[in-house]
Specification:
about 300 residues, alpha/beta, 5-stranded mixed sheet, 3-stranded antiparallel sheet, 13 helices, 12 strands
């Protein structure tokens, strides 16, 4: 408690000396974990970021960040300051945005969205097509979705929106599509024609996309049924499946929409699974405070409309 009181005292003392750009630099450094990445996100040079960091260190009387093999690591003081400064930055930016008229046609705003590789394949082209039409000067940064982190990313403002099948506690959400799982395999599979029974399915070899993708329900269902597959390969992304499966006898489970895209490219086919998996919803998630920003509210609606209309 004594340390936190000291932090709060330091925070109050320096707020009179600190400008919004310094707060933004600190928050971006903390989230990026790299001076180089922070400079890119802030659209400034690395020396500018280093200069701002030097001023921050002087103001807070702490190193704030130390170098490591992974980039830079926050000190204990920086960890404590981040929560307060991120909240302050979010509130300030929200207040500023709420007083401005937002013009998509002229905006050069930088938007951030978290997507899985499936989202990049299925949704990103739809989003960009609409964005290029309505806001040709805007920029979008895609962060690789990490399902265990996305709630914190939204709450902190690290991303403006996220698309995933999991519920994200503390966020607002809108259902975009209803989905179900299918089996993807080579169109020339030597033992499977146009139907698939459970015994045949279990007798084949399989490629599995790791659970970090958020699509681990098949393993859970099979375990509950006390059934085991022969796993030949585990990969972190769905996007590599077409090249792997087309020339092998491997089977994979994936959402039907993306499976249809892969089949349309040739060399593959999809079949219904020989056991029940629950259907699921894919939703757009955002933080409630972003609804006060005309720009973020517009961005959220653009994403939803692009994807929902793209399914028609």
């Amino acid at each position: 408690m004594v340390f936190l009181s000291k932090i709060n005292s330091i925070y109050v003392d320096v707020m009179a000396q600190i400008d919004l750009n310094l707060i933004r630099t600190f928050v971006t450094l903390f989230e990026a974990g790299s001076v180089t990445l922070a400079a890119e996100r802030l659209f400034v040079t690395q020396p500018s970021v280093s200069y701002s960091l030097a001023k921050l260190r002087e103001l807070f009387d702490d190193a704030l960040f130390t170098r490591s093999r992974e980039g830079i690591q926050p000190t204990f003081v920086a960890e404590q300051l981040y929560v307060t400064l991120r909240e302050a930055l979010t509130r300030i930016e929200g207040a500023v945005q709420s007083t401005r008229q937002f013009d998509p046609a002229s905006t050069e705003r930088h938007f951030r969205i978290a997507l899985s590789d499936l989202g990049e394949l299925g949704f990103l082209p739809l989003i960009l097509a609409r964005l290029n039409h309505e806001a040709p000067l805007a920029e979008v940064e895609v962060l690789a979705l990490q399902v265990d982190e996305v709630g914190d990313w939204l709450a902190s403002g690290k991303v403006d929106a996220a698309i995933c099948r999991q519920a994200v506690p503390g966020s607002r959400s809108q259902v975009l599509i209803q989905e179900h799982y299918v089996c993807l395999l080579s169109a020339e599979h030597p033992r499977i024609d146009d139907s698939l029974d459970l015994a045949t399915y279990l007798g084949e070899r399989h490629v599995v996309v790791t659970r970090t993708s958020g699509h681990g329900i098949a393993e859970e269902v099979l375990q509950a049924m006390k059934l085991e597959r022969r796993i030949a390969l585990r990969v972190p992304h769905f996007s590599v499946l077409p090249k792997i499966i087309a020339d092998t006898d491997l089977l994979a489970i994936l959402p039907a929409q993306i499976a249809c895209m892969f089949v349309a490219e040739g060399g593959l086919k999809m079949l219904e699974l020989p056991f029940e998996l629950p259907d699921f919803e894919v939703s757009l998630h955002w933080r409630a405070s972003s609804e006060q920003s005309a720009a973020l509210d517009w961005f959220r609606q653009l994403i939803a409309e692009a994807i929902i209309e793209g399914q028609l």
